[in-house]
Amino acid sequence: MGTSHVIIGDGIAGSSAAETIREADPAADITVLTDEGEALYNRILIKEFAKGKMPEGPISIHQPEWYDERDIELRLNTMVTRIDATAQEIHTHDGDTIGYDALLLATGGTPAQLPVENSDAEGIHHFWTFEDARAIEEHASRADTGVIVGAGLLGIDLAAICGAQDVSAQYLMRGNAWWRYALSEEGAEIMHEAMRERDVTPVFDSGVDHFEVDDTGHVTGVVDPNGEHYEADFVGIAIGLNFNTEFLYSSDIELTDNGSIVTDEHMRTNVENVYAAGDVTYFYDNILGDQAQNGAWGSAKEQGSIAGTNMVRDTGGEEDEATFSWVSSYSITHFDFPFLSFGHPTLGDESAERTYSDTEWRRVSIKDGKVTGGVLIGNLAPQTKLKRLAREQIDVSNSKDLLLEETIDVDKFLKQEAET
Ligand SMILES: Cc1cc2nc3c(=O)[nH]c(=O)nc-3n(C[C@H](O)[C@H](O)[C@H](O)COP(=O)(O)OP(=O)(O)OC[C@H]3O[C@@H](n4cnc5c(N)ncnc54)[C@H](O)[C@@H]3O)c2cc1C
């Protein structure tokens, strides 16, 4: 028998770990468990499906044969309910026990529900899985009025789905702008205008006090904390994730207060032979020099691969130790202009910002004189150089203006750095 690698979660983090392990160790026993009923699919693309713009086919990434060809055991519809790190075993909902030499936790999160009256009514959607996308597509295609709640990257997907499906929607936001932790009002206004063009109306300083329902239990409207009433037969909520770590509560694995799993930069947890990767981690960010969280596809994929390499190495393989060192990015393609956020755009003690036109804007966040992340609207060309400044932690404290030049010249920063 080969070394036994068990992976919980067949999202991009778990799947990329399985692939890495198989490439590094042809003899390993690899088991991937997921509580979903389908193998890895492209979570980024399910919004295009929900908009009614894409068939199901291209969204799937792995067919069951993919696992067969690599001799990876895939167990669908299997929920892991407990781990016993002393015995090195996991337990499933159907009473199975599986032993491991190395265990990867790649369980991601589940959308949070609003803690208000009727929040589980028919017609109120949360968005994470392909199943959710199917339900959203079906409902949005026949709905007339909608309300969206959650002024972040997933909320705007729901808003764009309403726009694409001709649902006249109100987008209720708590503050005075969309994603106000990363954008100023000026930058956010470009996004608001694009929403309005699609008949999605941003409503500020709002939220949900309770939902109204009809006799069948279907949502009919939303009342906000100011007492305003908004009609809605379709509601989309995206107010954040609850991390899927309940099954770890009885273990010694270190979790944060919000339930994410603490790892080092090699994706090791505090418990021997147990690793974590993807959205569920609170990892040591080598570039930031601090613990951090990411919710992006590319970052989850890379973390899965790093974890996979170290799982093989730590169980006797000859791989070099792998380290997660990554500037993530997340783009939005719903509008006539491109949008990209990179790194940690909500962190920082100062920022540099400029508006170039009605649809072009840039903001760069800075902490201790180094770029931590930013948001680009309209022109994504500077992203490579800005990401390099972040990755190499080049000092920009005396050259903030250079971050806003149409074309960024990294040499100018290096020269400034050398002179100080
Ligand atoms: C609609 C939408 C749009 C997005 N758009 C973008 C985008 O444009 N760009 C971008 O970078 N990112 C985007 N993201 C985020 C990106 O998809 C995630 O960051 C990424 O998928 C995280 O991968 P993961 O493997 O860590 O977790 P997940 O993909 O969440 O996978 C975790 C898996 O583990 C399973 N699981 C959980 N608990 C258990 C258990 N106890 N037992 C068994 N299985 C379990 C879950 O069901 C799930 O299948 C989007 C996300 C959504 C939902």
UniProtKB/TrEMBL annotation:
InterPro entries linked: FAD-bd_OxRdtase, FAD/NAD-bd_sf, FAD/NAD-binding_dom
Cofactor: FAD
Identification of the protein by name: NAD(P)/FAD-dependent oxidoreductase
Keywords, comma-separated and alphabetical: FAD, Flavoprotein
Source species of the chain: Halocatena marina
Residue intervals of the FAD/NAD(P)-binding domain: 4-286
Pfam families assigned: Pyr_redox_2
